[in-house]
Structure formats: C-alpha cells, structure tokens
Amino acid sequence: MDQDSHCTAERELVEAVSRITTFSTTSPSDEEENQPKAEISCQMRKENPEKDDLRDSSSTLSPHSSMTTKELQEYWRNEKRQCRQVKLLFEIPSTRIVEHHLSKYVMYKIIILQTGSFDSNKSVIERRYSDFEKLHRNLLEEFSEEMEDVTFPKKTLTGNFTEEIINERKLAFKDYLRLLYSMKYIRRSKKFIDFLTRPELQE
C-alpha cells in the first residue's frame, strides 16, 4: 500500500505541475497548451518488470476474473504506461524586478521540465525570495532531519537588486529546488507541491 500511495502522490505532483498556468510575460506556445499528461514511475517494476507484473496480477486479480488474455495484456500495458519514469528538472533562466508604490522585489522565472514521458513537457512559474523563504520555513517545521544539511540563500541588507546578487540567487535557488526534489518525502509533501502548483501566491 505504501508503494501505491507514493506512486499516487508523485503522479499527482507531475499532473499538477503540468496544469500550472504560465505567469511569464510571454504567452504559452501551442506545444505547451497541447502537452500530454505526464506519467510517473511507481518504482515497483524497476529491477524486473515481467516478474513483478506476474506477481501483481496474481495478487490483484481475483480467481473469478472474467478478463480474457487479451484484456489482461492490455491492462498491464496500460499499467506500465502509467508508471513510466518521470523526473522534474528545474531551470531559472531569467529574473525581473517588480516595483510597486511601497515595495520592490525580484521575481525568479522557474522552468519546470518533465522528462521521461513520451514528450518532455514544460511549465513556467514565477516566485520571489519571500516565497522560497516561506517554503523553507515550512519544510523545516515538518522535515527538520531531512533539511538539516540544506542551505538557504541568506538575506542581505543591501545590494539585493545588484546583478551579482541576483545571479548568485538564481544558481542557489536552482540547486535548492533540485536538492528538495531529490528527497523522496519532501517532493511528495503538500507544502512542496503547493509551492510548485499554486496558481498565485496570496500576499
């Protein structure tokens, strides 16, 4: 059951990311609008898929099943297709400075690439330093042990809008997201999924 629930959590993450609205100033391309749904690996059939399929079929299908051999083959073909390995890769290619009447901040454009499906999909979101900071704080509360060695870019009193600081943070945030995603329990957590999939952040 744990493997099934983990598979479901990761599939929901990838499907949610595939539905992210593009917040960059450019409109999404036709390719992005018509992107297929991504699939996720259950990691149940990694070493020997055929043996696992046989074991799974004997445990999940009742002896009174009326499925024909052809239907069984089609069933497992669909199962394998749904459990194809998918990974998320993160890139932060650009930033923009936003100025309001009383505030000024940097928005980081994050490209989330989904690899491993038949066609690689791409989603684009924008987040600011305070969004990353809130995510880090929330994850520390829930995953103190896992986050023990995770470093977060510190705030600076001055120079936040210099090209040097912005470029440093771009690289730091990219590595930060990759590291979080590499940790199984964090990438499946609601807090991490919310950070990647919320249509907009409430301020």
TrEMBL record:
Disordered, as annotated region: 18-70
Bias type Basic and acidic residues, positions: 44-56
Chain ranges of the PX domain: 86-203
Principal location class: membrane
Presence of keyword Transport: yes
GO biological process entries: protein transport
MF-aspect GO terms: phosphatidylinositol phosphate binding
Cell location: Early endosome membrane
KW Membrane (keyword) present: yes
Membrane topology: Peripheral membrane protein
Compositionally biased residues, Low complexity: 57-69
Name of one Pfam family that matches: PX
Listed SUPFAM superfamilies: PX domain
Bias-annotated ranges (Polar residues): 19-28
Record's GO cellular component terms: early endosome membrane
Coiled-coil ranges (or none): none
Keyword terms of this UniProt record: Endosome, Lipid-binding, Membrane, Protein transport, Transport
Matching InterPro entries: PX_dom, PX_dom_sf, SNX20/SNX21
Protein name: SNX20 protein
Organism: Neodrepanis coruscans
